[in-house]
Amino acid sequence: MKSFYRLATLTLMMMVLAASAFAQKQVPETALVNLTEGQGTIASSGNPSWDGLSELVLIPGASLMGASSSTTALYLGFTGGSEADIGNMVLYEVPRNGSTVLKVEKVTLGATQSPSIVLTDTSTCPVQPVSVTNPCIVRLDTVKLALSPLDDFYFAIYFTLDTNNEKISGAGQTGSQGALSGFSIYGDQTRVGVKGALPTNEDTDQPPFFLAYIAND
Amino acid sequence: MKTIFKFATLTLTLTIMMFAVSVSSFAAAAKAENLVRGIIGPVASNTSWSGYSTMALIPGAGLIPITSTKAVFYLGFTAGSEADINNMVLYTTARGSSTITASTPVTLGGISNPSIDLASATVCPVVEISDFNPCIVRLDPTTITLSALNDYYLVVYFTADDSNDTALGLTQPSFGQSSLRGSYVTGDESRLSVGGSIPNTPFSNQPYMLMYVMND
To answer: How far is CA A130 from CA A7, A44, A73, A76, B197, in A?
Structure first.
């Protein structure tokens, strides 16, 4: 009888200790951490007219900083315009330093891949008007994808061919681009399928215009 | 009595389950991670390496705080059918110093002078290798804990008067965002001793060949 009591008490103590240690381990995982180095400063020069253009941004697996996360949150930076009409957003997975699509993930805002972001709305952009000194950072819906250092990723966003998009501007060309680089290209480049090839980056390692940060949340 | 049995059994089961979860959590922590920011974006090619040493600087100041007792180097090839490596070594210096404080052999298949068959599909899955399909070769894990207080130089010497190495193409990064830097010199710089100096050559460019430094 006493042995059973001892066993039960000992096991219970072990469980409490284990639970305590486990709980301590969980705390840092809930903190907001960068998955890669994002853009440091905000600029606004060099923006083309974005109507009918796509931007592709390379998120290199070789730059991931080891934060363990099963989710990815992408943040867009706007420095001008009144409304951004997005035709589609996706996240492509390709081999490291490659361009053949392995996987395509949908990227959404408010659960839609084609949101219109009203930049004059203070609930979206609290400080008005939106400018280089008051950039509007928009957090997209969290993507349920763990970025792997063994692959590269391209965030692709297509801006609808309309007058609103003629006037919007993004956060590039910043002087401190972190690990990100991007390029713009005419037409909708968000519909490339698995095994398809992404368009060639002819702008080399220029900073992206819209994608500013990549975090776990 | 039965209640105690049930309680003990339940508690024991819970403990085992929690232990299993902890173990799987630790196992997940051992997945491949970058120790430093590697080569980013598309690559070009640079050929004819017979008799040259490539040197890649892995700066302590660029280390990502991942705890690892080993470093794994990945080399990129863009042309050729065989790479004849004469020797590979990792030098340690104090940060910013060129004086070698340690020299660690680097191997592939257990040897420091491997010949890499780039025409083999088991080595390079996508044949034929090119700028668009570089062949990335993972070297054996090197037992070393990279320290933020040191710098490291990976030196690979390609055999002299070797036709394979004359036709050999190494990756040449197009983007400049990696933490790695590199250079190359004529002759064998892979057999320097502790107390010797890293050759005085500018490490202002991205490295040839060294693509990634990871924990696995």
So the answer is: 65, 11, 22, 13, 54
